Amino acid sequence: MIIGAWHIARIGNHWYDIAKQQLEKMIASGLMDAADCILVNLAGFHGYSVPDFLYGQKKIIIIGSSRFEEDVRPLLKALQEQAKQNPTAKMFFIHGKGATTGTFSPPNAVDYWREYMSHFAIDRWQESVVALEEHDISGVEWRPNKETLGIDKPGGHFTGGFFWMNAKYLSEVCPPLDKYVDEIWAQSCLRCGGPCKPEALIPHKRSALEFFIGHANPKVNCFHNFGYKTDLYHFCAHPHLYRKEKDKEEVMTKSLWQIYGQHQGKLSDKWISYLSRYEDLFASYQGEPISLLEIGVQNGGSVELWAKYFKKAIRIVGVDINPKCGELVFDDPRIRVVVGDATNEEVQNTIMGDFDIIIDDGSHYDADIIKGFSTWFKRLKPEGIYVVEDMHCCQASAPVNGVNRFVEIAKELAHNQQVVPQNIFSVEFLNSMVIVHKRLPEDCGLGSRFIAGQTSTIVDLKRLHGSTL
Ligand SMILES: C[S@@+](CC[C@H](N)C(=O)[O-])C[C@H]1O[C@@H](n2cnc3c(N)ncnc32)[C@H](O)[C@@H]1O
Q1: CB-side exposure of 65: number of CA atoms within 13 Å?
Q2: Cα(229) to centroid(ligand 1), Å
Q3: Which of 260, 271, 361 for mutating ligand 1's site (highest number of atoms within 8 Å of CB)?
Q4: Which of 273, 274, 297, 317 maximizes ligand 1 atoms within 8 Å of its Cβ, making it the mutation to test the pocket?
Q5: Which of 12, 270, 346, 380 has the fewest CB within 10 Å, making it most exposed?
Q6: 349 CA to centre of ligand 1 in angstroms
């Protein structure tokens, strides 16, 4: 179970853009999908008016609109209440860092700071969920100092206040007290031998300590520590460089064959030729933070195997019309199964975000394959791959034949010189399988004509209209 707390402080010029971007990140990373609920506090000067980007977000629970003096306290209290009621939950806390100080575009130090914390707390949230198996809290650290933000350094903690925690840990911390103590909440707690001693904490300035949750003697997982360095910009420009080397090695060690061969869990049913093709097709995606959707879950083996193969995948979503699939339980928090007809728009709308890989291993009926492709292909990211398995099930006599539909698309592509429908880059046919690659529009067209060389003694190509010479 995942429960989040999101403090939207509607102050300054940037709160709206920051909060909207945070929502987009939660959707794109699959966190919104995976969360059971996200408590939102609408703080600041706008009363109870709900920002438009929150309309229709079913996981969001607005707990109120706190007064400025209360700031984040109502949210902390509500989160702690949830922690007590759901002791096995994994919880996260994020807020609109930089609403008053940021420039948003182009970003400044605070924006990079927020981006750095978001990268770990939101974009790579699964890593914290895994880390919480052995730790109480999880996050990253950057310590501002006099040089950077003009303030003094505090002790070790998740400066900036984006973090994940176990509900069990949170429920043991003293309740938040007042505005300033809230911001350094959980430093003083029962584990430290309470009662709280706010006077001992006040000397540290708020911005150096806010939302700290590290002194209750927790087991801390710190993904990354910038110490006092100021090059957050480089982190934000190249976050992939900061992946642990160890992770990379682990990711690259096992082939799909090995993973299938050693699999002991839920049953998967695939043809051997598909695995051979997948091995090449997916190799460059294996260590990437991808999202994968598979239509057709059945016993759950394939989604389990995809999660093993794509170790860095952000989310693996399976859809199956069989209600029994809703009873499947997966250890890997990145896997989610949606019960319903994958061709149904309502079902499609319950699944958020776009995907890097979509595999149709569902009913194999012609009409479903075609309808599924026409809707799900729009949800494929540029550079994405759409696969339909078991095309041998297509009925030549069906009113609309699945194989013919893809042949038509291939023909359109081969005939079409400049305008390519739906950003289709290629259509590949194998035995019983169709693979459609999507790319950016500029990569799908013919491009301009490129003529190289100087001598043309047979046909003077230089004179040709439209040449690039
Ligand atoms: C071939 S099995 C999937 C096997 C699984 N992908 C594997 O590799 O182990 C096909 C599954 O598609 C499901 N299915 C059939 N029609 C569907 C639809 N319209 N939407 C979603 N799932 C569907 C069936 O219930 C069945 O469990």
Answers
A1: 11
A2: 51
A3: 361
A4: 297
A5: 346
A6: 19
Residue 289 Cα to ligand 1 middle (Å): 25
Ligand 1 near 276 CB (within 6 A): no
The answer to whether the pTM exceeds 0.90 is no
Structure tokens at 408: 């038509």
Q: How would you class 462 by CB atoms within 10 Å of its CB: exposed for 0-12, middle for 13-18, buried for 19 or more?
A: exposed
What is the distance in A from the centroid of ligand 1 to the CA of 412? 30
Q: State the pLDDT at residue 225.
A: 67
**Token pair of 405, please?**
């539909």
Beta bridge mates, 291: 315
- Position in ligand 1 atom list of the atom nearest CA 298: 27
| Ligand 1 neighbourhood includes 341 CB (under 6 angstroms) | yes
Q: Domains of the chain (ranges plus CATH)?
A: 2-242 (3.90.550), 250-444 (3.40.50.150)
Give which of 175, 189, 3 is closest to 86, Cα–Cα. 3
Q: Is the pLDDT of residue 24 over 60?
A: yes
Which tens digits make up the pLDDT trace of 148-187?
444 444 443 455 678 899 999 888 776 665 544 444 444 4
Between CA 335 and CA 161 the distance in angstroms is 27
Q: Among 278, 322, 374, 392, which residue has the most ligand 1 atoms within 8 Å of its CB, making it the best to mutate?
A: 322
What was the pLDDT predicted at 339? 96
Distance 280 CA to ligand 1 centre (A): 24
Which residues, in sequence order, are bridge partners of residue 433?
430
